């Protein structure tokens, strides 16, 4: 009970810090065609994602909208993604809550940054370049605080989740770890809350959250997170970048 109480106070404190750090978004207006707010709708059509086969070979492109729409038969286009797990020098992990206006998994809790490499200048974007771009946009972390050498590409995870039946995920997700001291100033169009959670409080903290976990984060939490977190000091030794895992997403 003591740990859970401390965790609740930690989250409440950092929710206040978030409101102080983040700029307030403009009053949202709904996209009348899709029920999606304009800033999110623009990204759905402007961002060109990378379609892949089950071996993660690049086979074509599609818009972000096309990659996340659930078809009548439940299928979703398989595309490339990445998930960054961010730790400070003490080893505490950044946990964030996705903004309520997000198209996929709004108000879900997840790891630091989850997004896609794009097709830019007629070629696929490098994963770490994409991760730095999105961490700068979503978390406000200056690019000069994210040395590419501090990222560890651990492995890949192939998963499918139908989401809300309208928007879902089917990705080969490249899992990246990053440890360092960075300045976080989240974009409130992307992130509503965040905090750094100590490893010894994590398991007690999860049941206190006021929403569900994203499917990709939940799979990593169940199958690999403890091993990797326990070995932050030698994380590069555990990397299996050529491997593609398939885990069950147990709710």
Automatic annotation (TrEMBL):
GO terms for molecular function: isopentenyl-diphosphate delta-isomerase activity; metal ion binding. One of its GO terms (cellular component) is cytoplasm. The keyword Cell membrane does not apply. The keyword Lipid biosynthesis applies. Its EC number is 5.3.3.2. Keywords: Cholesterol biosynthesis, Cholesterol metabolism, Isomerase, Isoprene biosynthesis, Lipid biosynthesis, Lipid metabolism, Magnesium, Metal-binding, Steroid biosynthesis, Steroid metabolism, Sterol biosynthesis, Sterol metabolism. Its cofactor is Mg(2+). It comes from the Eukaryota. One of its GO terms (biological process) is isopentenyl diphosphate biosynthetic process. Pathway: Isoprenoid biosynthesis; dimethylallyl diphosphate biosynthesis; dimethylallyl diphosphate from isopentenyl diphosphate: step 1/1. Residues 77-219 form the Nudix hydrolase domain. It holds the Pfam family NUDIX. InterPro entries: IsopentenylPP_isomerase_typ1 (IPR011876), NUDIX_hydrolase_dom (IPR000086). It catalyses: isopentenyl diphosphate = dimethylallyl diphosphate. Belongs to the IPP isomerase type 1 family. Catalyzes the 1,3-allylic rearrangement of the homoallylic substrate isopentenyl (IPP) to its highly electrophilic allylic isomer, dimethylallyl diphosphate (DMAPP). This is isopentenyl-diphosphate Delta-isomerase. It comes from Parnassius apollo.
């Amino acid at each position: 009970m003591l740990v859970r109480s401390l965790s609740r106070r930690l989250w409440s404190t950092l929710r206040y810090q978030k409101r102080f750090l983040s700029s307030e978004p403009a009053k949202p207006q709904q996209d009348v065609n899709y029920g999606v707010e304009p800033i999110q709708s623009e990204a759905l059509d402007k961002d060109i994602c990378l379609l892949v086969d089950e071996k993660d070979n690049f086979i074509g492109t599609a818009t972000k909208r096309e990659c996340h729409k659930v078809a009548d038969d439940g299928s979703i286009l398989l595309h490339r993604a990445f998930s960054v797990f961010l730790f400070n020098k003490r080893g505490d992990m950044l946990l964030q809550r996705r903004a309520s206006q997000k198209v996929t998994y709004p108000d879900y809790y997840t790891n630091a940054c989850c997004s896609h490499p794009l097709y830019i200048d007629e070629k696929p974007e490098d994963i770490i370049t994409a991760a730095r771009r999105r961490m700068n946009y979503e978390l406000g972390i200056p690019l000069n605080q994210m040395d590419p050498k501090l990222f560890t590409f651990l492995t890949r995870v192939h998963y499918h989740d139908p989401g809300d039946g309208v928007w879902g995920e089917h990705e080969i997700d490249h899992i990246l770890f990053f440890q360092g001291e960075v300045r976080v100033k989240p974009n409130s169009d992307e992130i509503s809350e965040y905090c750094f959670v100590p490893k010894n409080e994590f398991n007690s903290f999860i049941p206190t959250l006021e929403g569900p976990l994203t499917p990709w984060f939940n799979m990593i939490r169940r199958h690999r997170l403890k091993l990797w977190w326990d070995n932050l000091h030698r994380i590069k030794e555990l990397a299996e970048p050529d491997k593609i895992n398939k885990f069950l997403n147990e709710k």
